[in-house]
Design brief:
Elements: H1 2-7, H2 11-29, H3 36-41, H4 44-57, E1 58-59, E2 63-64, H5 66-91, H6 93-101
Length: 102
């Protein structure tokens, strides 16, 4: 997967891949309750997550950027979804009000 990542010329595809990896790595390294059963059955997952984190999210001169990068991407996604929801609500305001009152 990492070789494919390096050779991929599309920034959007790379960003999606990194977002998925970052989400999983953070869950594994921070001991998220959702992944605890996997960690208990496969203890090597945590060390693998650490290796992936160091390979993709530790940059010379900056150190570990995983949390900062991931939080930034989540903030962008949340802002985009919020804007889309606001536009949809504005466009469908009358229909929404009728549905809520009925």
């Amino acid at each position: 997967q990492l070789l494919w990542y390096r050779q991929c010329p599309k920034a959007r595809v790379k960003t999606k891949f990194l977002m998925a990896v970052a989400s999983l790595v953070r869950a594994l390294t921070q001991g998220s309750p959702l992944v605890k059963p996997w960690l208990e059955q496969h203890p090597a997952l945590q060390s693998l997550a650490q290796k992936i984190m160091k390979r993709l999210f530790v940059l010379p001169g900056l150190g570990n950027i995983l949390e900062t990068w991931h939080e930034g991407r989540l903030a962008c996604y949340n802002a985009t979804l919020s804007l889309a929801a606001q536009r949809a609500a504005d466009k469908m305001r009358d229909d929404l009000q009728v549905s809520l009152v009925s």
